[in-house]
Amino acid sequence: MNVVDPSVVCGERVEIGHFTVIEANVKIGNDVKIGHRVTIHEGTVIGDGVTIADGAVLGKPPKPAKTSTVKLSGELPPLVIGDHCTIGANAVIYRGATIGAYTLIADLASVRENVHIGQYVIVGRGVCVENHVRIGDRTKIQSNSYITAYTTLEDHVFIAPCVTTTNDNYMGRTEERFAKIKGATVKRGARVGGGAILLPGVTVAEETFVAAGALVTKDTEPKTVVKGFPARFSKMVDERELL
């Protein structure tokens, strides 16, 4: 049995699995496939040709803890999912996010509020994208990476599995930290290897190659390979690898 609010606007050729809940004022485009036990919260907008796998939760209203660093301010707009996206099983996407066309949000991924994701993006299995993040077109984030709040990933960025980004040099202590929280900025075409760590506020320059396991503590130069703990210049990126 499904629970679909009478105000829901459905396009043509929409398929809905069993035990799915669709709340008020949701808009669903044409040729959408919705799996079993999916929850779509109030006002969510879903484009044409979207596939939503079993157990996904879309448009979830955020409810931060009283001690959370990032606070809510004002009413969030509805979640918007662009045309021909794929949403994996048990993925959770919050209200206030925008997902561009042809993007994959894989199984068990989490995308928080105030996040903008471009077109043709891959957010891999188990990836966590925190709030106030911007992700450009054709960027790929591989499984189990953590994209902290106030991070920017520009177009054509590659984030390998298990990468960690950070944004708080004070690690939750002192009131001063609130004014200085800042995630990394990863510029167009940069690549970050598996298990690398980006410290708060660093800029990974255009076409930088960060080696696996590196600790990036300061800004990099364009088209350079950096590696080590902490990361240091190793060589220039081979021109054959540049965009």
Automatic annotation (TrEMBL):
SUPFAM superfamilies associated with the record: Trimeric LpxA-like enzymes
Alphabetically ordered keywords of this record: Repeat, Transferase
Organism: Geobacillus kaustophilus
Gene Ontology molecular function: transferase activity
PANTHER family given in the database record: ACETYLTRANSFERASE (PTHR43300), ACYL-[ACYL-CARRIER-PROTEIN]--UDP-N-ACETYLGLUCOSAMINE O-ACYLTRANSFERASE (PTHR43300:SF4)
Protein name: Hexapeptide repeat of succinyl-transferase family protein
Record field: transmembrane: none
Pfam families named among the record's database cross-references: Hexapep
Cited PROSITE patterns: HEXAPEP_TRANSFERASES
